[in-house]
Amino acid sequence: MKKLKILFVLVSFLCLGVITQAYALNSLFDESGTINRSNVENVWVEAFKGYTGSDYSGYYIGTFAGNESESDLESLITIYLGVTFEANSYYKAEESNSWTEGPLSVTGGGEETGTWTLDSPYALGFYSVKGGTEYALYYVNPYQTTGTWSTEHLLNKGGEQPGLSHLSAVATAVPEPTAMLLLGLGLVGLAGVGRKFKK
């Protein structure tokens, strides 16, 4: 009987955790003041809980009011992933820095569409597009070094699609393939030297 009670408590906690995560994800689209502006050309991808389209890279997660900060993006990404997320590297390209910050470069600044590029060794996993008084958040999987962006999920105060104010990127350093190859060859060499000394 005691084992049955323990099992019941564990199953209850498990169910509560799943329900909480599902509610948190749904709140990105519903009651928290966010807007789901996917259009008819966008396709829902259940595996990534987001929309995909031809005008932007990644999966559209949602549109949010205000001006995002690194901590705002970390909070939204934590809700989206269901686990605590901390940005390794955060970059914000805007007109004041000639649409370039660190390894991030953006083309089409001030326009409705354009491209983004991250220099090696960085790759982008999440990015936000800001225009008007709101921003849209996107998830890129697998991480990429180049892609396209669009303000199609944003509206300005006049109800029109705005030009880009800035693009923020959450990037991760990705090891170079040649560095990994050299490391592997070094380990193989050490194993060979170890065998030689063993004989």
Summarize the structure.
The protein has helices spanning 2-27, 70-81, 177-198, and strands spanning 43-45, 50-52, 59-65, 89-94, 100-101, 104-107, 113-118, 122-131, 134-144, 146-150, 166-173.
Mean pLDDT across the residues is: 79
Q: What is the H/E string?
A: HEEEHEEEEEEEEH
Sequence stretches where pLDDT stays below 50 over 5 or more residues = 13-33
Radius of gyration: 22 Å
- Structural class by secondary-structure content: alpha+beta
The N- to C-terminal Cα distance equals 62 Å
Q: Note the beta-strand portion.
A: 25-35%
Plain-language structure description:
By secondary structure, this protein is of the alpha+beta class. The protein folds into 2 domains: 32 residues; 143 residues, no CATH class. The protein contains 3 helices and 11 strands; from the N terminus they run αβββαββββββββα. A 5-stranded antiparallel β-sheet has the order 3-9-8-11-4, with helices on one face. A hairpin with a 2-residue loop joins strand 5 and strand 6. The longest helix has 26 residues. The protein starts with a helix and ends with a helix. About 11% of the residues have low confidence.
